[in-house]
Structures are given as structure tokens and as C-alpha cells.
């Protein structure tokens, strides 16, 4: 659930904005990506949802999408992120994209350690950590993905597994930088075609554990400012269930959000399920 935070010393506590994102994975040409972004901007012009929206196109469409989103005058923040990046600023890394390039293309955020990258492209906890630190060094919001496989789940060690992933990902990250971190819990068995969304009970247990790991690492107040979002077979139908789970601060959606009208439905369903906020929320720093 959303929590309240102090953005400035002496200010009234304000509600932390929920966060709703979609990664398009390896989908959409530049033209398709811009059409989607334009449609999202048109929707946001008439919307007052109390959430930050973030889309993660392929690298090839990043710059064009950033330019399309820059035309938005809506109070609803619509941001753009990269799906991955290298940790080095530059160098002989054929085929890689650096944080400088991601920033240069207009990205605000970067997704790091998605299950598919860990499972298919050799991403490790150690490389995730290097990328998280590089992202924060370059002023990018780091969307840190953690997630268990079905065998981890069968052995009953999900909390230990994702807790370790999170601890390593954040090794060397200061409490001051934590405001630029979003944690996504994305179980491998739940994502993609054939996946089945985690039950609300599972999500509550894992998110609660991830929060407790953050509290152990950073203390109560900084840990409460980190958004923990769920991803894995999110659909318009199950959005209200996830929105009601404690320690769910948003959703990270794949397939169901590749159609812009369905993403809008998901955003609106999530915000409607959250109900009216007790205090007007605001973005904290650049989040
Ligand atoms: P899905 O993907 O919503 O298509 O299951 C989620 C993700 O991988 O982020």
C-alpha cells in the first residue's frame, strides 16, 4: 500500500505516488512505439490519476519515445526507461549500451536484472549490483528486478532467495540514493506466456519480506520510501486484487500492457482500487 513520506524537512507528510510501468520487451518498431507514446500522452491530458507511469521500450525506440512523452503537459508523470544497460560509461563492449547513452536518449529510469536477463543472458547478482550503482551514479532511477524460479518456490526458499538478490543488488548503495530505487518482485514462474500470476498471499509475504530486508539494511524511514511493485501475468482483472495487498506500491506489466488502451485500463483500475488518497501526493525528487 502507499505510505506517506516527507519530501522536505519541515513539510507535511505526503503520500508516495504509486508506480505503474510496462516493459515492451523485444516488441514494437519505432513507429509503433511512438504511436503508443502519443496515445498515452493524449490519455494523460484528460487524466488525474495519482500515479507515476513509466514505459520501457527497446533501445531503438528510446529516444523517439522520450521525445513523444516530452510533449505531455499532464500532471500525470509519464516517464521512459531502458530495459537494460552496461555499467561502464564507455569502452570496448560490443553490442552494449552505456548509462551515458541511456541518459542521452532521454531515459529517466533503467530496468535491471529482469528474470529473462538473468535466465537467458547471464545476468548475475554481481552484474546487477554494478548496474544499479552505475544507474544511480548517472541519475537514473534503478528498477531492480528480483524473482524466484519454480524450483526455488518448490524448495520453499523464496524469501531467502529474493532477499539475497536484493541485498547484493543494493550492496554499496547509500540510504540517500535509495529514493531513486524501485524494487520489482517478478517471479519467473509468473511472467510471460504460460505464467500464472502469484496469489495475493504470496505477493504479500514476499513484499513484506523485501520490505523487512530494506529495513534491516537502511532503517525504517528510508525503507518505507522505496516502492515495491509486483509483476507477472498482471491483467486488468487481477489488478484490484494486487492493489489491495500490503506493501504493493504499483505494478510492472508485460503482455497485458502492450496495447495502450489496456495499459490505461490497468492504470485506471489500480488507481480506482486504491481509492481517494488521504493527502495530495507529489513526486519525491525526480521519481
Ligand atoms: P507479463 O510480464 O506481464 O507478460 O507476465 C511481466 C514482466 O516480465 O515484467
What does this structure look like?
The structure is a single chain. This protein has 287 residues and is an alpha/beta fold. It has a single domain (15-274), classed as Alpha-Beta Barrel (TIM Barrel), CATH 3.20.20. Helix content is 40%, strand content 15%. The protein is built from 11 helices and 10 strands. The strands form 2 sheets. An 8-stranded parallel sheet has the order 9-8-7-6-5-4-3-10. Helix 5 (125-137) crosses helix 7 (158-169) and helix 7 crosses helix 8. The protein is globular, with a radius of gyration of 17 Å. Mean pLDDT is 93; it is low at 1-13 and 278-287. The structure holds 2-phosphoglycolic acid (PGA). Residues 23, 186, 191-192, 195, 231-234, 252-256 line the site of 2-phosphoglycolic acid.
In short:
The chain contains eleven helices and ten strands.
Top keywords for this entry?
15% strand; disordered N terminus; alpha/beta; eight-stranded parallel beta sheet; 287 residues; binds 2-phosphoglycolic acid; two-stranded antiparallel ribbon; disordered C terminus
